[in-house]
Amino acid sequence: MTIRWIALRVILEIIRDRRTVAFFLLVPVVVMTLIFYAVSQDETAHVGVVTRGVARLFDADLIKSLENETDIEVVSLDIPDEETDLVRIETAIRDHLRSGRVDAILYMDEKLLVDRFAGRRGTLHLWVEGSRPTTTATAISAIASAMDDLADALPVVIDTQCSADCANSVNATPMELTKHYLYGSEDYRMVDFFLPVFPPFFVFFFTFILSTITFQRERTRGTLERILIAPVSFGQVVLGYVGGFFLFSLAQAVIILTYIIVLLSFDITWAQMFSIAGVTLLMMLVGLMMGLLASFLAHNEFQAIQFIPLVVLPQVFLSDMIWDIQRFPQVFQWIAYFLPLTHANWAMRDVLLKNHSFWATWPHLLMLVGFFMAAWLGLMAVGRKRTSY
Length: 389
Prior knowledge:
By secondary structure, this protein is of the alpha/beta class. 65% of the residues lie in helices and 7% in strands. The chain has helices at residues 2-16, 18-39, 59-67, 86-99, 110-117, 133-153, 164-169, 190-194, 198-221, 223-229, 234-263, 270-297, 301-318, 330-337, 340-352, 362-387, and strands spanning 45-51, 72-74, 104-108, 123-128, 176-181.
């Protein structure tokens, strides 16, 4: 009887709390939906094709060979057919790779045919964006597989004096694939792609938890109300708490950054170290403000804990941290744009993997500052209303 009464009491307490009911029912739906889109789609590389000279006669054969590969989607490129200057063509190729519309571009010129006619291997040139190792590996693997079909489709010139054995071996050698990287090189490891996003994520995650739980505990104990009796404003109290949390969050950020820098397989400059420290610092401040805001929106510690998966999990799935957000439906891409961790991850990878300067990432930095200000204003509005000061 006692056990039944306790169980009934717990059930009634949960039912009375609408946030808790929503947490139990809605969070699994949201998380499972994100997991579905994250793992259900195969990695696909967007590849463009550029041919010049006589090689343009075999443009269709090359595209057909690529389209037969399940991991490749062929996209059209806005490069004029009449453009024949190699320097301008390579500049246009780099511009297309920077735009993000295409992951790799295969370039075939007439020299390939000349070499094949002469019995040599011949060279195809592959330009890759390079900052995403998984996409790069998919493109290279699929293109290497398609090259055999392309080689069979290309014509051969056989000398009439050539014997039967010679004729059968004229085009037997595989073509050579020369790779050009816009960012990075063949030495980039998978872990190098993920390491840049660890500092903003872990700093945000730990700072958000620390500030949410600690500040909620201060409210539960009545410490905050006793402080507000003194002649101080609510804004001053918040700044004081931020200053206290900042010290420990800063120490944590230094440890994480040092660890990541040691693990990176490539050298980084002092400018890059300054840049990643700046992005991490901004993310730490955003985590502090969002944690304090969450603690005021919660009525108790259990509700405060509920904010952790609600805030953190969507950013893990939608911030381009592990899964490419471009593979998700459009609605999730819009949601991702309004998540602070998305912009922190983009800024970190731009700095470390693409060698952009700190100020070149200003749109993402501006968004992080905007998130901080929005959380600050929300905290001021909610905090004053809850404390009646």
